[in-house]
Amino acid sequence: MKNKGLWLIFICMIILAGCSKKGTEGDYPAAIMVNDTIYYSTGEQLSGEVNESVVIRNITSYTDEMPAKNGEANFNRDLDSEYTFTDEGLAVCIDNEWILFKQQE
């Protein structure tokens, strides 16, 4: 009976240790680094149109963490998203919609 209680404590410790893992995918808000600044998704669609004459760039790399280099994002593994600056802030094209990203205040 005593061994059964020790096994139960041991199993609980293993489960708790596994649940304490940090830095797993999904722990970070959608973000992109541009010009050494991190911009976060507002979740809002851009209210205006993107001026096609402005420079539009593609995301260059993906990370499971917070972006650490210019052009890197943590929300699209396919690297097909475009981004550009607008009067409202940074706009990123996700699923054919321009989503507004802003610096955290």
Quick recap of the structure?
The protein is an alpha+beta fold and 105 residues long. The protein has one helix spanning 2-19; strands at residues 31-34, 37-45, 57-58, 61-62, 72-73, 82-85, 90-94, 97-103.
Structural notes for this entry:
By secondary structure, the chain is of the alpha+beta class. It has one domain (25-103). It has one helix spanning 2-19, and strands at 31-34, 37-45, 57-58, 61-62, 72-73, 82-85, 90-94, 97-103. The model is unreliable at 17-24 (pLDDT under 50). Helices cover 17% and strands 33% of the residues. The protein contains one helix and eight strands, in the order H-E-E-E-E-E-E-E-E.
Structural class label = alpha+beta
**SSE order:** HEEEEEEEE
Largest sheet: 6 strands, antiparallel
* Morphology: elongated
Percent helix range: 10-25%
Give the total of beta strands: 8
Total helical segments: 1
- Order of neighbouring strands in the sheet with most strands: 1-2-8-7-6-3
